[in-house]
Amino acid sequence: MSLTKTNKKFKWALDFSQKSRTSASDLPSPPGYSQATNANYSESSKDTDSNLLLIKKLWDVALGPLKQVPMNLFIMYMAGNSISIFPIMMVGMLIVRPIKALFATQSTFKMVEGTQAAGQKFVYFIGNVVNILLALYKCQSMGLLPTHSSDWLAFEEPLTRVEHIGGGISML
């Protein structure tokens, strides 16, 4: 493998004049490698890897609504409690998205089978119910839910406020 020049061998020189081709079968296997265990591992590992990947993906889908709760809380805080178009649209989206997701649960989990299917569907259901409850709380804090008897009965008097507080300039 070395190139000679006037009977001197250079340390880093390669001899390309010889055409010795080695194939992959001529090379020895690395220590600890066995062809028989590799064949068994490849067949079984493909099945288990695909099953584990599918289970992980479905758990990500099932936990998706619960991962949206912090963002929904932030959106509720930023929208405020005033009755205007922006907070109404936010509350509408907070209610509509989980309800649509609950009706589409079967199509979302159509490829789920096995022992974890019921747990995944239950977690998905609970996550959407939590988001609906957050939206209902926001509606109640904005005063959009009929929580007093005067809200639906005409002969009941609405609650009267005893005190009113407002900002402004003090006139001395």
UniProtKB/TrEMBL annotation:
Major localisation? endoplasmic reticulum
Please give, as recorded in its UniProt entry, the membrane topology of this protein: Multi-pass membrane protein
Q: Where in the cell is it found?
A: Endoplasmic reticulum membrane
A single Gene Ontology CC term: endoplasmic reticulum membrane
Q: What Pfam families does the entry give?
A: EMC4 (PF06417)
The record lists the membrane-crossing segments as 74-96
Question: Biased-composition ranges for Polar residues?
Answer: 19-43
Arranged from A to Z, the UniProt key words for this protein are:
Endoplasmic reticulum, Membrane, Transmembrane, Transmembrane helix
Top-level taxon in the UniProt lineage: Eukaryota
The ranges of region (Disordered) come to 19-45
**Which protein family is it in?**
Belongs to the EMC4 family.
What do we know about how this protein assembles, alone or with others?
Component of the ER membrane protein complex (EMC).
Protein name per its UniProtKB record: ER membrane protein complex subunit 4
